[in-house]
Write a structure and sequence with these properties.
Radius of gyration: 21 Å
Number of strands: 2
Helix content: over 70%
Distance between the termini: 15 Å
Largest sheet: 2 strands, antiparallel
Number of helices: 9
Structural class: mainly alpha
Order of helices and strands: EHHHHEHHHHH
Strand order of the largest sheet: 1-2
Strand content: under 5%
Shape: elongated
Length: 203
């Protein structure tokens, strides 16, 4: 198998990325507690306890990022369609170039999702008391600003490349399944490929 057919079946199931998103957000939370515990403790107090903080974290922080996740997946998918990227060679150089081609997508994704994600977060967190002063102080500062871009872009890069590489691995396994003999499992075909054993194509 010298080329990899890009089916993108993983990306076409939008819910598939929810677990990846959760892990990234969870690591961000752990990182925040580790390096800024005083601020996080204050956040717990202002949320009227841990349960209030947890509710705010799920509803006000995690759920709005579903929009970001969905838009990033759509952008990746449309990029492949527009530039007709249907397969790549199974060489380190080809894979690296393929991933570099997606870099502009991740660097510009912020401009597509931020107005929706940000206003959804404002609605979920502030409901039913919507104050203009809070909107200007905590939300507007992230809308199409340098600060907002710097805060969100590393998150998008991590999320985007994890999604992309998981999708590549799933496509690789699916391609192996197509080339494996009826008696072979995907794991057998993968082991043969890893050992450099020629993989025959069975119809």
């Amino acid at each position: 198998m010298k080329t990899l057919e890009l089916n993108r079946s993983f990306l076409k199931k939008s819910w598939s990325g929810l677990a990846i998103l959760f892990v990234i957000v969870l690591f961000y939370e752990i990182f925040s507690w580790t390096f800024n515990p005083e601020f996080k403790s204050t956040s717990v107090e202002t949320s009227h306890g841990f349960l209030g903080y947890l509710f705010n974290w799920v509803i006000g922080f995690y759920l709005p990022e579903f929009v970001s996740l969905y838009i990033v997946i759509v952008l990746i998918d449309r990029f492949h369609d527009v530039f007709r990227i249907n397969e790549i060679s199974l060489t380190p150089k080809s894979i690296l170039l393929y991933e570099l081609k997606l870099l502009p997508v991740f660097l510009t994704a912020y401009f597509f999702f931020i107005p929706i994600t940000l206003h959804l977060r404002f609605f979920l967190r502030e409901f039913p008391h919507f104050e203009a002063s809070r909107y200007e102080s905590y939300y507007l500062v992230l809308l199409y600003t340098f600060t907002g871009y710097i805060i969100y872009t590393p998150f998008v890069l991590i999320l985007g490349y994890i999604l992309l590489n998981v999708s590549l691995f799933v496509d690789f396994l699916q391609n192996l399944k197509k080339t494996a003999s009826p008696q072979e499992t995907v794991f057998d075909a993968f082991a043969s490929y890893a050992k450099g054993t020629p993989v025959l194509i069975y119809n």
